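Annex B.
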Amino acid sequence: MGYSLLADAVVLVHGLFVLFVVLGGLVVLRWPRLAWLHVPAAIWGAMIELSGKVCPLTYLEVRFRRLAGETGYTESFIEHYIVPLIYPPGLTRGWQIAVGLLVAALNLAVYGVLHRRRR
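DUF2784 domain-containing protein: predicted structure tokens.
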């Protein structure tokens, strides 16, 4: 049962990280000092999506699930947990690239606003 709880904790942290990557720029508008944390997170998130690779947190979760005697999964965290909530079945590589570009564009826009405010 301990490994199952660890896997669930990884899912929670991973989900919060994804939210921070996507929406953290809005938090930075309120608290600009968090930019030092958000910029690398947003770059990492966009790079993972654009490269088509799987985040290491996904491997960690699956490992804990298997150690707990549960079935792991082979797709990425986003494909396994988020895609069924947001996208129609059959996520294509094109959609993955679109998500990565959307994350990058959203964050660039937010940081553009922040930059204009500081001037």
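Residues 7 and 61 are 5 Å apart (CA to CA). Residues 2-118 form one domain. Further annotation is deferred to the next reporting cycle.
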